[in-house]
From TrEMBL:
Keywords (A to Z) from UniProt: Hydrolase, Magnesium, Metal-binding
Cofactor dependency: Mg(2+)
Classification via InterPro entries: NUDIX_hydrolase-like_dom_sf, NUDIX_hydrolase_dom, NUDT22/NUDT9-like
MF GO annotations: GDP-mannose hydrolase activity; metal ion binding
Domain Nudix hydrolase: 142-309
The protein's name: Nudix hydrolase domain-containing protein
Species in which this protein is naturally found: Trapa natans (Water chestnut)
PROSITE patterns tied to this protein: NUDIX
Length: 314
């Protein structure tokens, strides 16, 4: 993984060691406190970033066993394709007197079945490889890339959802709106081996656009606000939950609506069934709920606070 990073306020950076204390339920894999726009975020989508099957046959067979058992209990489960997170690289370019940072996500392809069978496997830690190289450490896990949005209301309150008891992960917990960038939304169902280089570049551009389109879509569907009320998303970093090594890209955006107006929109949200209630909170109020947030979303909150500090310094 390439990490040619300049440690300047607002520049992409590997977060300080104290933020990756093993006692904290998340890791900040990458932080860009002043946010990156779509023109600064790229994707390298390739089969070399796909999951590598585990050499232990019994452990590998447990993927199907766990999925089959879960489908029997929840017949509505759908084995959709997901983008697999395999790392990132950073390139800093000089343009006049400005240093412009470009970030490239390394993405492969996985699916929900494999996520359930590896990351959510009771034996998930056995899929990890002892290595300081992150791409090797998680090479046997599905690691689908999730996303989350830190949304500020017009009063600068934060939009938080309480998850339904019917969801697969962390029912009843407090989260930011989010989900996943979807391969099918980008027209991808498999790797196109042997594709000409120009087509590969076009695919990468489509996926990088989906990274930003998907987070707007998730916010609109989960809290019901019109897309026109949202500012352009700014990518602020990558958080990973220590439990199950679950990665998520986080974005920041402003909503022009008030907390009261957002509550009214939420009552007709398309995906309102995924949550039981919407809250708008101050930073201090959300701090008090930290122990009731999944690790990856708590990491998203940490990325937001780094953004606030960087804006103050700037």
């Amino acid at each position: 993984m390439t990490r040619s990073v300049e440690h300047m306020a607002g520049m992409p950076q590997v977060p300080p060691a104290e933020l990756n204390d093993p006692s904290i339920p998340y890791e900040l894999l990458f932080s860009c406190p002043l946010g990156l726009s779509p023109s600064q975020v790229f994707v390298d989508f390739d089969g070399s970033y796909d999951r590598i099957p585990h050499p232990d046959i019994d452990l590998e067979n447990s993927v199907s066993e766990i999925w089959d058992a879960r489908v029997q209990k929840h017949t509505s489960l759908y084995n959709g394709k997901k983008f697999r997170y395999a790392g990132y690289s950073v390139q800093n370019e000089i343009s006049g007197t400005r240093c412009i940072s470009l970030v490239t996500f390394h993405l492969g392809l996985t699916d929900y079945r494999t996520f359930v069978g590896t990351n959510l496997n009771p034996l998930w830690e056995m899929y990890l490889v002892p290595s300081e190289d992150d791409s090797i450490h998680c090479q046997h896990t599905s690691s689908p890339l999730g996303n989350g949005a830190v949304v500020e209301t017009s009063e600068k309150r934060l939009v938080i959802l309480r998850r339904s008891n019917n969801v697969g992960e962390f029912p009843g917990h407090f989260v930011f709106p989010g989900g996943h960038p979807e391969p099918e939304e980008a027209g991808i169902t498999s790797h196109q081996n042997g594709e000409p280089l120009k087509n590969s570049g076009s695919i990468n551009m489509t996926i990088s656009k989906e990274m930003f389109d998907s987070i707007i879509r998730e916010v609109v569907e989960e809290i019901g606000v019109p897309a026109s009320s949202l500012s352009n998303p700014q990518f602020i970093g990558i958080s990973r939950r220590r439990l199950n090594v679950r990665p998520a890209a986080f974005f920041f955006m402003k909503c022009s609506l008030s907390a009261e107006e957002i509550q009214k929109c939420y009552s007709t949200a398309q995906d309102g069934f995924e949550s039981t209630q919407l809250y708008t909170m101050t930073l201090i109020e959300l701090e008090k709920l930290a122990d009731k947030m999944p690790g990856c979303h708590l990491g998203g909150f940490a990325l937001y606070k780094l953004m606030l500090e960087a804006c103050k310094d700037a």
